[in-house]
UniProtKB/TrEMBL annotation, chain A:
<dbReference type="InterPro" id="IPR012373">
    <property type="entry name" value="Ferrdict_sens_TM"/>
</dbReference>
<dbReference type="Pfam" id="PF16220">
    <property type="entry name" value="DUF4880"/>
</dbReference>
<dbReference type="InterPro" id="IPR006860">
    <property type="entry name" value="FecR"/>
</dbReference>
<dbReference type="InterPro" id="IPR032623">
    <property type="entry name" value="FecR_N"/>
</dbReference>
<feature type="domain" description="FecR N-terminal">
    <location>
        <begin position="12"/>
        <end position="54"/>
    </location>
</feature>
<feature type="domain" description="FecR protein">
    <location>
        <begin position="116"/>
        <end position="208"/>
    </location>
</feature>
<protein>
    <submittedName>
        <fullName>FecR family protein</fullName>
    </submittedName>
</protein>
<dbReference type="Pfam" id="PF04773">
    <property type="entry name" value="FecR"/>
</dbReference>
<dbReference type="GO" id="GO:0016989">
    <property type="term" value="F:sigma factor antagonist activity"/>
</dbReference>
TrEMBL record, chain B:
<dbReference type="InterPro" id="IPR007627">
    <property type="entry name" value="RNA_pol_sigma70_r2"/>
</dbReference>
<dbReference type="InterPro" id="IPR036388">
    <property type="entry name" value="WH-like_DNA-bd_sf"/>
</dbReference>
<comment type="similarity">
    <text>Belongs to the sigma-70 factor family. ECF subfamily.</text>
</comment>
<dbReference type="InterPro" id="IPR013324">
    <property type="entry name" value="RNA_pol_sigma_r3/r4-like"/>
</dbReference>
<keyword id="KW-0805">Transcription regulation</keyword>
<dbReference type="InterPro" id="IPR039425">
    <property type="entry name" value="RNA_pol_sigma-70-like"/>
</dbReference>
<dbReference type="Pfam" id="PF04542">
    <property type="entry name" value="Sigma70_r2"/>
</dbReference>
<dbReference type="InterPro" id="IPR014284">
    <property type="entry name" value="RNA_pol_sigma-70_dom"/>
</dbReference>
<dbReference type="InterPro" id="IPR013325">
    <property type="entry name" value="RNA_pol_sigma_r2"/>
</dbReference>
Length: 321, 167
């Protein structure tokens, strides 16, 4: 025998009451109202009991050592999603995880240094404070670690910074300067990209403060901003995973083919473009960056296009006749 | 419930294929064998009749769910160990507490699967950090009303899974 389930409206009311009481410190008047609601119908009471027990079951604060729960859940969920996208994507074969990280992990001792990557190359660098700096293709940065600040100047391209707490007390601020912006990282991880007409900042963990342009603005995990002379603009519905390059991948969601090729073009020399009549085709998927010729060969499998090579460095996509 | 015979037939015809498919996803023969076994155990536990028109598609659907559960567990363990590494020495919980917490985290992660990132985040900030809706709104840069809706939506989602989904 199964008891009848309370309807959706009743369940939502029970949730509403539970949250309201929780948020208002169990105010006596509200509590009375809530009790009246509970006794009004047996369904109400059943829904209430279930919501209470669910809430307790999901209460992570009751367990010792749960302080890391949020971080654990958020990190693992991001990775799981990427893994699902990678491995369960039908038709596209993706091999193992990119192991470039650590392969060329440079350790530099001087506190002021220039650091650059060539086209198609990615590099990573452990900074003196333990932070990890990763440079994407064709990028350059220099470091100025001084007594009162840790400053990274992004001169071209794109960097990912995984912040470490400064061991010297009080902690020196960790700053990134680009042509348009001054950013401050705290804990967590973020990506900064210098485009021709703006800077883009995307935070994947923790928070970043935008000191300029414009008034102080916080960027939280999952958010991206475009920064230019007019100030900071929140970007919605990104068509590309902003940090995937650090794993040697481009991950797109419904991205225009024209934009996709411009992105791929950053990782290779020469000319890469497409005919106007296919530039608006959309593409979603996970692509490995280590061999962009191979990547291009995958496109005709999902789109009505063909890839023509005039020379190795002159590539154009056209509509399949 | 499917008859043992029909599961047996499925097993003898498709077990080898399923094993190979799982190995290609997991890259590991031992895990693949385990999950292939679990797939058939799941079949025996199902209430409805088997859909035998497309047995492989059917098996793949079940196996895919198990693969995702398996990965979720792995990623949780990894993320948890990383998080522990950053705790001061005195605050690292005992082995039993860690097991308990991981089990709970796995249940929660499974429940929250499929929620939009914002809904999920708001809910976790309330449940894990005990933040008030007002603080969450500030931290996420959204309105108080949105946070209230997110948290309530997440709870409702969990409620349905907990009390109204078919076993």
């Amino acid at each position: 025998m199964t008891p009848l389930n309370p309807g959706p409206r009743v369940v939502k009311q029970a949730i509403h009451w539970m949250l309201k009481l929780r948020e208002n410190g169990h105010n006596a008047h509200l509590q009375q109202q809530c009790e009246r609601w509970r006794t009004a119908h047996q369904d109400h009471e059943l829904a209430w009991q279930r919501v209470q027990s669910l809430h307790q079951e999901l209460n992570l604060r009751a367990i010792p050592g749960a302080s890391v729960a949020l971080q654990t859940l958020e990190n693992s969920s991001q990775r799981l999603q990427r893994r699902q996208a990678l491995k369960l994507l039908s038709g596209v074969l993706v091999l193992g995880s990119a192991a470039w990280l650590g392969k060329d992990l440079d350790v530099i001792s001087p506190l002021t240094a220039d650091f650059a990557s060539a086209t198609g190359q990615r590099r990573s660098l452990r900074l003196p404070d333990g932070s990890l700096l990763q440079l994407n293709t064709n990028s350059a940065a220099d470091l100025a670690f001084e007594a009162d600040q840790r400053l990274i100047r992004l001169k071209r391209g794109e960097l990912m910074l995984t912040c470490a707490k400064d061991s010297t007390a009080p902690g020196r601020p960790l700053l990134v300067r680009t042509r348009e912006a001054l950013l401050q990282g705290f804990d967590g991880r973020f990506v900064v990209r210098q485009d021709s007409d703006c800077t883009r900042i995307s935070v994947s963990q923790g928070s970043v403060a935008i000191h300029s342009p414009g008034p102080l603005q916080w960027v939280h995990a999952g958010q991206s901003y475009r920064l230019d002379a007019r100030g900071a603009t929140l970007l919605h519905n990104q068509d590309m995973d902003t940090g995937a390059w650090a794993e040697g991948l481009i991950v797109t969601r419904d991205m225009r083919l024209g934009d996709f090729l411009a992105e791929v073009g950053r990782y290779r020399h020469g000319y890469l473009s497409c005919a106007d009549d296919i530039a608006d085709l959309r593409l979603s998927g996970v692509f490995r960056l280590e061999d962009t010729d191979k990547l291009l060969q995958l496109l005709p499998q999902t789109l009505p296009v063909k890839v023509s090579y005039r020379t190795r460095w002159w590539v154009r996509l056209e509509r399949l006749a | 419930m499917p008859s043992r015979e029909s599961v047996h037939t499925l097993y003898s015809h498709h077990h080898g294929w399923l094993n190979t498919w799982l190995r290609s996803k997991l890259g590991n023969a031992a895990d693949a064998a385990d999950l292939a076994q679990d797939t058939f155990v799941r079949l025996l536990q199902r209430r409805e009749q088997l859909e035998l028109n497309a047995p492989r598609a059917f098996l793949r659907t079940i196996a895919r769910g198990l693969v995702i559960d398996h990965w979720r567990r792995e990623e949780l363990h990894r993320a948890y160990l990383e998080a522990l590494a950053h705790l001061p020495e005195g605050e690292v919980p005992s082995l039993e507490t860690r097991e308990l917490l991981l089990e709970l985290l796995e249940r929660i992660a499974q429940m929250l699967d499929g929620l939009k990132p914002k809904v999920r985040r708001a809910f976790l900030l309330a449940q894990c950090e005990g933040l008030s809706h007002k603080d969450i709104a500030e931290q996420m840069g959204v309105s108080l009303r949105s946070v209230e809706r997110y948290v309530a939506d997440a709870l409702y989602h969990c409620y349905l899974l907990r009390y109204e989904s078919e076993a």
